């Protein structure tokens, strides 16, 4: 929000000269002295005489008699139009004098170029009543500038004794409270205005106080004074009736026929009302200059009055238009400006009437406006503006675009890895790592003379690896090769089948875990029954879903659709963590081995994994929209050496393995898998290569990681998932969309709060030189940076401590969308 340009303009007459003093900012000021044209006073008096002659009946004041006699018929309408034009022409010609050039230029410059402000506010103080009567609101410099920026001219009286204005704390009410004093209606009609005021009852608490026939005079006075000083307080005071100037007593109002109250009489009650929250008053009556000065002197925020006599119908139209704008929650200046504009547009009907209203204000007060009280209005405050909606739409689309989300997730886990290392929060390493990868790499293929074509991998070579692992007493053997088709050399399938049987027949049988896949037509591609039987092996889905965990479904119809990594973890727990486990693979089993395990666990009321290892209904529901809400991610912020060990297949077969590695192998999940040769893949060569996560590049200190991104194998991903299942270390990501919504609400709430505080505490000593940052702007920058940094650290620590991944970038950008308007304000008041 760009700050207002606030000027204090003081005008004082000394005999035949006028002194203009313009001050602004941090002590800047300009002075000018020019001759006051006596013709201006005569033209004003002539306009006033014709004005009163045109509106001679129905005035809300008392006009003295002007003699008797036969008055000829005169076209007062035409005379009034001519008198107004002549007077305003002379008035603006005087204000265009060369002596005022610098003052006009200064005001003009505040409205142009890089120093353009949202509003130009001129606090006008006239030291003589004859100057105060002039229609300064019609100054043409204001009209010209208004074409570019809104202009507000607010009159301030010369004397303001209430210096503790900023300390007044207005009551926070459920509804604004309005007191309407209905005064002497002799010759007037208030019904239209009363009806309009009553319509405000849906937004405000409104009370009417007035006189009644045969009521004693002191009772009428007492009722009005007690109503003003109501202990509950008021926000707005409205007077309808006759009023007039009275310099000594501060003006007077007619509260009943021939019964007047002076402002000095009701000052104690108005002071109490002000202390209880009274901010604004409107006197829809005549000649209110003294009244306005008196009330501002008491400390009210603003007062709207009529400087001249005003016709009853004009007063009605003005109040109707004023209230119409007030119910749209515009401030009182905007309401008065709109109502005056309406009267100007109705010039044929109400000539010169638009020149009569004026607003007086306390220099340090914010402009009063009704506050929405209903829930719907309060909620509307949180609706985004057009620019905010555009930015939020972009950020929302970004939060739903999976490729971008995958990219941000990869970078976020990289930062998490750096944070773990810097803060020494890397998990304590288990010895051994839970998984050993036996990788068939290019060197293994080169050393094996019987492998002429590694696609598909010859079954007899897999058999040799199974035999070696069985020889070393491996308890869990996983094979990350799909065995759904027979090989061209049948004896090789037989060899693998026999190796698997031998491993299961050992006194301490090995658990065999194989992979399945879903075919193009939706059929399940399972290992050949000639090679292995599900009655003594486990078979799980091998497909991977980017950086997300494969999850088991609690109520799944197809046991072969359980994730490969989940079944490996199940085998590990059953062998190494469950005491006296009686369920073991046996060749003579008549039912599927997995079903036996599930029944045994159900019978013993055991659950080997936390609920995070299973697909939750809400996450499954998000799949409908192509999202992965609350789907656990793979935590690559843990160093790979704590997740798995690796050994090339050829080293295993050549016994190039240490004694400690052999003993570790007996307590690990061993996965026989492709180790980086280009032919690896189920249908298309190279499909077993995946983009290397940025965090893995960090842990391995790859200098050229970006050029070697497709060197991460599926088996390594399976190993990470086995680790997470075994450690119940699932990282649950909170959807960016949710945090964007929360950040938007917090940002809007912050913006509303800061704007409210700014309005309540602002003084109007604004500087128009804004080339440097103000202290408040610097504080706001520090606050933004500190808040974003603090939130970032919280998200990093929350990831480690409670396993929750809170997004940082998109919600921070969302909050910045609301913070930026506060930051760019040219002034941020204390």
Automatic annotation (TrEMBL):
- State the source organism's domain of life: Bacteria
Keyword Transmembrane tagged: yes
List keywords of the entry alphabetically. Membrane, Transmembrane, Transmembrane helix
> Which sequence ranges are marked TM in the entry?
737-755, 780-800, 806-824
Give one Pfam family.
CHASE2
InterPro entries per record: CHASE2
Name of this chain's protein: CHASE2 domain-containing protein
Biological source species:
Floridaenema evergladense BLCC-F167
- Species classification: Bacteria, Bacillati, Cyanobacteriota, Cyanophyceae, Oscillatoriophycideae
Domain CHASE2 per the UniProt entry, residue ranges: 415-754
């Amino acid at each position: 929000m760009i700050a207002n340009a606030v000027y204090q303009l003081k005008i004082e007459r000394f005999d035949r000269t006028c002194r203009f003093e313009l001050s602004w900012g941090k002590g800047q000021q300009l002075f000018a002295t020019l001759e006051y044209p006596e013709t201006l006073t005569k033209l004003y008096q002539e306009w006033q005489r014709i004005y009163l002659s045109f509106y001679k009946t129905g005035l809300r004041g008392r006009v003295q008699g002007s003699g008797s006699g036969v008055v000829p018929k005169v076209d007062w309408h035409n005379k009034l139009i001519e008198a107004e034009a002549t007077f305003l022409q002379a008035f603006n010609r005087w204000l265009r004098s060369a002596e005022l050039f610098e003052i006009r230029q200064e005001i003009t410059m505040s409205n142009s170029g890089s120093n353009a402000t949202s509003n130009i506010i001129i606090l006008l103080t006239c030291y003589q009543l004859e100057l105060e009567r002039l229609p300064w609101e019609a100054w043409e410099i204001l009209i010209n500038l208004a074409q570019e920026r809104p202009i507000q001219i607010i009159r301030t009286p010369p004397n303001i004794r209430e210096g503790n204005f900023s300390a007044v704390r207005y009551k926070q009410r459920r509804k604004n409270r309005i007191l309407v004093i209905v005064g002497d209606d002799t010759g007037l009609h208030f019904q239209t205005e009363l009806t309009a005021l009553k319509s405000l009852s849906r937004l405000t608490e409104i009370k009417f106080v007035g006189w009644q026939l045969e009521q004693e005079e002191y009772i009428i006075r007492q009722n009005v004074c007690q109503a003003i000083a109501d202990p509950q307080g008021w926000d707005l005071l409205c007077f309808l009736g006759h009023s007039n100037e009275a310099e000594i007593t501060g003006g007077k109002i007619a509260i009943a026929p021939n019964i007047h109250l002076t402002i000095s009489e009701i000052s104690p009650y108005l002071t109490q009302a002000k202390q209880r929250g009274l901010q604004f008053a409107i006197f829809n009556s005549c000649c209110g200059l003294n009244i306005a000065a008196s009330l501002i002197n008491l400390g009210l925020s603003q007062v709207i009055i009529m400087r001249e006599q005003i016709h009853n119908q004009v007063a009605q139209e003005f109040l109707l238009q004023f209230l119409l704008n007030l119910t749209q929650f515009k401030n009182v200046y905007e309401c008065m400006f709109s109502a005056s504009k309406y009267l100007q547009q109705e010039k044929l009907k109400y000539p010169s009437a638009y020149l009569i209203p004026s607003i007086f204000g306390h220099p340090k007060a914010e402009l009063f406006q009704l506050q929405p009280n209903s829930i719907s209005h309060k909620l509307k405050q949180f609706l985004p503006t057009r620019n905010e909606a555009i930015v939020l739409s972009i950020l929302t689309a970004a939060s739903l675009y999976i490729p971008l989300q995958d990219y941000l997730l990869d970078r976020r886990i990289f930062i998490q890895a750096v944070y773990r290392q810097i803060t020494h929060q890397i998990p304590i390493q288990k010895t051994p790592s839970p998984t050993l990868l036996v990788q068939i790499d290019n060197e293994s293929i080169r050393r094996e003379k019987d492998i002429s074509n590694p696609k598909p991998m010859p079954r007899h070579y897999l058999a040799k690896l199974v035999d070696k692992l069985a020889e070393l007493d491996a308890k869990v053997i996983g094979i990350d090769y799909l065995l759904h088709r027979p090989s061209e050399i049948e004896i090789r399938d037989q060899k693998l089948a026999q190796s698997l049987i031998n491993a299961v027949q050992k006194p301490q049988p090995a658990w065999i875990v194989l992979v399945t896949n879903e075919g193009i037509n939706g059929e399940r591609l399972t290992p050949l029954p000639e090679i292995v039987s599900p009655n003594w092996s486990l078979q799980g889905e091998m497909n991977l879903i980017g950086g997300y965990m494969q999850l088991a479904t609690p109520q799944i119809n197809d046991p072969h659709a359980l994730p490969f990594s989940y079944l490996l973890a199940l085998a590990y727990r059953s062998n190494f963590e469950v005491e006296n486990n009686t369920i073991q693979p046996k060749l003579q089993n008549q039912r599927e081995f997995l079903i036996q395990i599930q029944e045994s666990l159900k019978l013993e009321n055991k659950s080997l994994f936390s609920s995070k290892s299973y697909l939750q209904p809400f996450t499954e529901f998000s799949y409908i929209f192509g999202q992965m809400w609350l789907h656990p991610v793979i935590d690559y912020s843990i160093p790979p050496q704590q997740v798995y060990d690796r050994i090339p297949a050829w080293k295993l077969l050549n016994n190039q393995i240490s004694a400690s590695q052999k003993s570790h192998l007996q307590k690990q999940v061993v996965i026989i898998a492709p180790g980086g040769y280009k032919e690896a893949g189920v249908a298309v060569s190279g499909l077993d290569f995946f983009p290397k996560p940025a965090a893995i590049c960090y842990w391995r200190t790859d200098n050229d990681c970006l050029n070697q991104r497709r060197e991460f194998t599926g088996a390594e991903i399976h190993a990470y998932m086995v680790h997470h299942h075994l450690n119940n270390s699932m990282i649950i990501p909170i959807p960016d969309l949710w945090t964007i919504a929360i950040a938007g609400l917090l940002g809007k709430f912050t913006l509303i709060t800061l704007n409210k505080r700014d309005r309540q505490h602002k003084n109007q000593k604004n500087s128009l030189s804004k080339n440097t940052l103000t202290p408040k702007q610097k504080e706001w920058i520090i606050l933004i940076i500190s808040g974003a940094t603090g939130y970032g650290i919280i998200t990093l620590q929350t990831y480690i401590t409670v396993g929750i991944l809170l997004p940082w970038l998109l919600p921070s950008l969302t909050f910045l969308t609301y913070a930026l308007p506060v930051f760019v304000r040219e002034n941020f008041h204390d």
